[in-house]
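Reviewer comment 2.1 asked that we show a complete input and output for one of the modelled complexes. We chose the 2-acetamido-2-deoxy-beta-D-glucopyranose case, as it is the one discussed in the main text.
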Amino acid sequence: MVKLCPVLLVISLVTGLSHAEETWTERVVSDNKRTVISLQFYFHDILGGSSPTAVRVAQSPNTNNSPTSFGAITILDDPLTEGPDPNSKLIGRAQGLYGNTGKDRLSLTMAVSFVFTDGIYNGSSFNVLGRNPVTKAVREVSINGGTGLFRSACGHAVLRTYSINPTIATVGYNVTIWVDGTTLSSRNGGESTGSIPKRS
Ligand SMILES: *[C@@H]1O[C@H](CO)[C@@H](O)[C@H](O)[C@H]1NC(C)=O
Ligand SMILES: *[C@@H]1O[C@H](CO)[C@@H](O)[C@H](O)[C@H]1NC(C)=O
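Response of the prediction step:
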């Protein structure tokens, strides 16, 4: 029976490797204590059409007079896809809210959870909290915490608007996340489903 163990280990390593083949994600072990995860995907804020995924739920009495819609709050459940085409592979959703918090220049404050449904990160999520000056071609938002394989995550995302029209804004996300530990499988009991890790 003892001899079986190395065989099982090899199988689990091979299984682990096959999960790394998703095109939108890459992992690099940086040192003995932390792992860097890189993700690249597209976010679609669908504001119009027959099935919007971002809806304004509240605003101030002056919002309609404001060039930046200052004081509006929008709830979103936006699709995240592998490529810039909204019909490309769905890999997760961005659920939360943003407020128009720039009075003179359009800027949003985001409180959004990015929840993944594809591959090894299925069931894991991370949170974006902070300012997003959307009129800048490239901007950065902070990642503060997460669940599953993104437990205790810290990091940032570089955002670039890919396309924008009155009904849909598509934004490219390049995400860099640091998590504790060098083997992600030990964080969720070896499952690839992002199930709740066992407490030791
Ligand atoms: C993601 O996990 C859910 C729940 O475990 C499962 O039903 C679904 O098939 C998984 N999706 C993929 C793409 O692996
Ligand atoms: C995201 O990463 C890709 C590939 O590394 C790069 O081509 C692209 O310019 C990056 N986008 C941003 C907004 O940094």
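Confidence is low (pLDDT under 50) at residues 1-20, 185-200. We note this here for comparison with the apo prediction described in Section 3.2.
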